[in-house]
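Fold this sequence, please.
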Amino acid sequence: MTQPSGVEHPRTLVIIPTYNEIQTLPTAVRRVRENAPWVDVLIADDSSPDGTGAVADQLAGQDAQVRVMHRAGKEGLGKAYVAGFAWALDRGYELVVEMDADGSHRAVDLPALLSRAEQADRPDLVIGSRWTPGGRVENWPRSREAISRTGNTYVRLALGMPVGDATAGFRVFRADTLRAIALDEVESAGYCFQVDMTWRVHSAGLRVVEVPIVFVERTEGESKMSGNIVREALWRTTVWGAKHRARQVGRLAARAGGAISDGVTGLRGRVASARENRPDGGRSPEQ
C-alpha cells in the first residue's frame, strides 16, 4: 500500500460492491485512487451479466492496489459487504470503507471521512451523512428526499438511536468495530443493511459520528433501490424497535421490582430494630 511521503495512515480498504456497473466502475475507482492514493480498493462483483467483473479484472491488472472478489451470483449489498469485511479483517486492514460504484458517493469527500476516523478520539463508525448540518443531496426529486428523511426519522424514533442518516452507505468502520459485532448474524439487504449495521454498532455501546457529505444522484446505469428494499427496511426496523422497547420495559420493571424489594427489606429491618430497642426487648405481654 502506497502512502504519501511523510504521512502515515492506517491500512485502509475501500470496498466497492458491484452489480451491472460497467459504465461507472472505472471512473469510481480512478477517483478513489486520485483522492486517497494510500488506500487499497476491493471490488466485490456479484457475477454481473454486463461484464463488470471483466472490467474489474482489467483495473486490478493495471493497479496493484486494486483487487477483485468474484462472487457466485447476485446476493445483495449486505452479503457483498459482509464478505468484503471478512476479506479485510483476514488481511489486517485497520479501516474499512463502504462506497458505492455509481458516483453518488463523491471520492472527493473520502479524505474527510478518513481524517475523522483517524482522529485521536477514534470513533468506531464514521458515517458520510446527507442529513447532518452541511450535508445535502443533488439531483434528487422531492419524493426521494422525503422518503429518505422520513425513513431516517422513523429509525431514530423506533430505535432511539441518535443518528441523522442511519441509511447512508458511505461510511468508515474501524476493524475492531467489525470484530465486536456479530457479522455472521447479519442477513439484511441494501437499504436495511445500513440501518442494521448502525444499530449493531450503537447497541454494542460503540460510538457513531457523522460527517457531512454531498450525495449526487447517479447519472449512468440503473438504481438498485426498489419498493421491496424499502419495505424490508420498514419491517425489520419495526421488529428491532419493538424488541428494543420490550427490553427497555423489562429493565424498568426489574429496577422497579428491585426497588420495591429493597424497600420492603429495609422496612422489615427498621421494624425489627425498633422492637429490639424497646425497654421490654420487644417481647409481647404474653411473653
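The chain has one domain: 12-241. Residues 227-276 form the longest helix (50 residues).
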